[in-house]
């Protein structure tokens, strides 16, 4: 019997999603003779039966396109806004999966998607996932698709900011995405030669950042580029967060928690720039790269990675191996059980070789 495969993209979009859809689709159809249906807008598409036929025509010409032809959303099966309330719609998804007579469902997404896919696996569905995100923070895979493209965009931005910072003798603080992980800021900071790199995994002291910038002035370099990850926090904020979380754990719920990093990203970066201006006497400007980092055509490396992982997903489905994420391991791929991935975040180890190399070329981490 012809196998019928469902496919959806969930979470923030990422360059390489269409290349991955094409990889899964072409391998499933042309190589294994399966049938494919796309579900639009993430898990919501499965709840509301928003489908899209995926055949040769739809899969043609999408390798180089940014975004996702399926649309995406951050909707979770068990907490989905519907008819004015937030509902657990897992059972609805299971019912629709069977109504469409699916044999398997491929979910393309980041950390949140891995958790949601595990829920559906536990609800009895045959699920296979692929790791996508510009943040590169999915556990158990060397890399996620989308990261390389975003790295290129952020690096190009830092290159361009250098000449204007240099001409005006300014500090330019450039905020780079990454959620709670510093991979993107670290990578782009190294590749773009940022003078200071601030990442969530290494809480910084503003005084130390200012001292690094003043040292550059003394060396005749009255300008600096500060690459700051959107989730980077100062040591004081970090300590306050830890203390508040500990109190909350003890059950003292009344304690007022400082805001979690993701709520106030841009505010924190603007405040940092103001403080650096005051501490160094140099003018400071802020550039927030934002969603530019997720837009546009995927890099060659992301197209290759997405195609590798997508076709490997088809191989797993053909072998009826479900409940796994297709991870990149060197030149090979590995099927990792979803319960080993879900709920974990791959952050930058503070002693990671990239950090060590950056320190050796004189980059400050503000610590
Ligand atoms: O996870 C990808 C990401 O781009 C993060 O780097 C960022 O924090 C977040 O998504 C932004 O989400 P949204 O597109 O919902 O604003």
Task: Itemize the secondary structure elements and their pairings.
Layout lengths: L3 E6 L7 H15 L3 E5 L3 H5 L3 E3 L2 H4 L20 E3 L2 E3 L2 H10 L4 E6 L1 H12 L4 E5 L15 H22 L1 E7 L6 H9 L4 E3 L7 H13 L5 E6 L5 H15 L15 H16 L2 E6 L11 H19 L5 E6 L2 E6 L15 H8 L7
Parallel strand pairs: 1-2, 1-6, 6-7, 7-12, 8-10, 8-11, 9-10
Antiparallel strand pairs: 2-3, 4-5, 12-13
Helix pairs in contact: 1-11, 6-7, 8-10
The structure holds 6-O-phosphono-beta-D-fructofuranose (F6P).
Record keyword descriptors for this entry.
13 strands; Rossmann fold; 4-stranded parallel sheet; elongated; binds 6-O-phosphono-beta-D-fructofuranose; 12 helices; 2 domains; 18% strand; 367 residues; alpha/beta; 7-stranded mixed sheet
Structure described in brief:
With 367 residues, this protein is α/β, with parallel strands linked by helices. The protein has helices at residues 17-31, 43-47, 56-59, 90-99, 111-122, 147-168, 183-191, 206-218, 235-249, 265-280, 300-318, 353-360; strands at residues 4-9, 35-39, 51-53, 80-82, 85-87, 104-109, 127-131, 170-176, 196-198, 224-229, 283-288, 324-329, 332-337. 6-O-phosphono-beta-D-fructofuranose (F6P) is lined by residues 12, 110, 133-135, 177-179, 230, 294.
Number of helices: 12
| Low-pLDDT stretches | none
Count of all domains: 2
The main sheet comes to: 7 strands, mixed
Would you mind describing this structure in some detail?
The protein has a seven-stranded mixed sheet, sandwiched between helices. The protein has two domains: 4-145 and 298-340, 3-Layer(aba) Sandwich (Rossmann fold); 151-294, 3-Layer(aba) Sandwich (Rossmann fold). The mean pLDDT is 95. The chain has helices at 17-31, 43-47, 56-59, 90-99, 111-122, 147-168, 183-191, 206-218, 235-249, 265-280, 300-318, 353-360, and strands spanning 4-9, 35-39, 51-53, 80-82, 85-87, 104-109, 127-131, 170-176, 196-198, 224-229, 283-288, 324-329, 332-337. Strand 4 and strand 5 form a beta hairpin. Helix 1 runs parallel beside helix 11 and helix 6 packs across helix 7 (183-191). The chain is of the alpha/beta class. Residues 12, 110, 133-135, 177-179, 230, 294 line the site of 6-O-phosphono-beta-D-fructofuranose (F6P).
């Amino acid at each position: 019997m012809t196998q019928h495969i469902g496919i959806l993209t969930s979470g923030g979009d990422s360059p390489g999603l269409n290349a991955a859809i094409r990889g899964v689709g072409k391998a499933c159809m042309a190589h294994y003779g399966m049938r494919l249906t796309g579900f639009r807008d993430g898990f919501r598409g499965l709840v509301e039966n928003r489908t899209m036929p995926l055949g040769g025509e739809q899969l043609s010409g999408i390798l180089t396109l940014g975004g996702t032809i399926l649309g995406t959303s951050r909707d979770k099966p068990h907490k989905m806004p519907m008819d004015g309330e937030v509902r657990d719609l897992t059972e609805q998804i299971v019912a629709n999966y069977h109504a469409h007579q699916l044999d398997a469902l491929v979910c393309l997404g980041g950390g949140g998607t891995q958790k949601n896919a595990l829920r559906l696996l536990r609800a009895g569905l045959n699920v296979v996932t692929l790791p996508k995100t510009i943040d590169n923070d999915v556990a158990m895979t060397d890399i996620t698709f989308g990261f390389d493209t975003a790295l290129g965009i952020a690096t190009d931005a830092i290159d361009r900011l250098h000449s204007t910072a240099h001409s005006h003798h300014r500090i330019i603080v450039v905020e780079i995405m990454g959620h709670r992980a510093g991979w993107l800021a670290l990578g782009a900071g190294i590749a773009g030669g940022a003078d200071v790199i601030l990442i969530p995994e290494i809480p910084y002291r503003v005084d130390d950042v200012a001292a690094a910038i003043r040292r550059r002035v003394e060396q005749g370099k009255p300008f600096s580029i500060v690459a700051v990850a959107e989730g980077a926090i100062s040591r004081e904020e970090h300590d306050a967060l830890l203390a508040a979380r500990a109190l909350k754990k003890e059950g003292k719920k009344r304690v007022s928690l400082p805001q979690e990093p993701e709520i106030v990203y841009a505010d924190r970066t603007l405040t940092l720039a103001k403080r650096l201006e005051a501490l160094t006497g140099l003018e400071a400007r802020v550039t927030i790269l934002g969603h530019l980092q997720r837009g546009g055509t995927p890099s060659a490396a992301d197209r290759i990675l997405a195609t590798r992982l997508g076709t490997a997903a088809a191989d797993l489905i053909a072998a009826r191996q479900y409940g796994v994420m297709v991870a990149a391991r060197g030149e090979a791929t590995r099927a990792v059980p979803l319960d080993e991935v879900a709920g974990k975040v791959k952050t930058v180890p503070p002693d990671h070789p990239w950090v060590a190399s950056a320190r050796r070329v004189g980059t400050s981490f503000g610590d």
